[in-house]
Design goal:
1 helix, Atu4866-like_sf, single chain, 96 residues, Protein Atu4866, 8-stranded antiparallel β-barrel, 64% strand, Uncharacterised_Atu4866
């Protein structure tokens, strides 16, 4: 699903993050405490502080929305907006 913006009566379609695959890679909180690595194959690895691989599981991106399910069965979700991931009250930025 694409989002549309009207510019001078022309419709410009903006691809979703699902379409561009720009979600792949490392997402970090500003303080670096939480790090989500979104891997190819719909797996993720989350580090917290000194705990490398604190949580691991699968994810599914639909449009600009992400659903997580860790390997223990816990679920969570988030939203990508303007290059930022909003997830569980946290704000994560893509590492360059």
């Amino acid at each position: 699903m694409e989002s549309a913006h009207s510019i001078n009566s022309h419709i410009v379609m903006n691809p979703t993050i699902e379409e561009t695959k720009a979600y792949l890679g490392m997402w970090v909180t500003r303080d670096g405490y939480v790090r989500h690595e979104l891997l190819p194959g719909n797996r993720y690895d989350e580090a917290r502080g000194n705990r490398k691989s604190a949580y691991q599981g699968s994810y599914k991106v639909s449009g600009n929305h992400i659903d997580y399910k860790d390997d223990t069965g816990f679920t969570a979700d988030g939203e990508f907006r303007d290059g930022i991931l909003y997830h569980g009250g946290m704000i994560l930025y893509k590492e360059k």
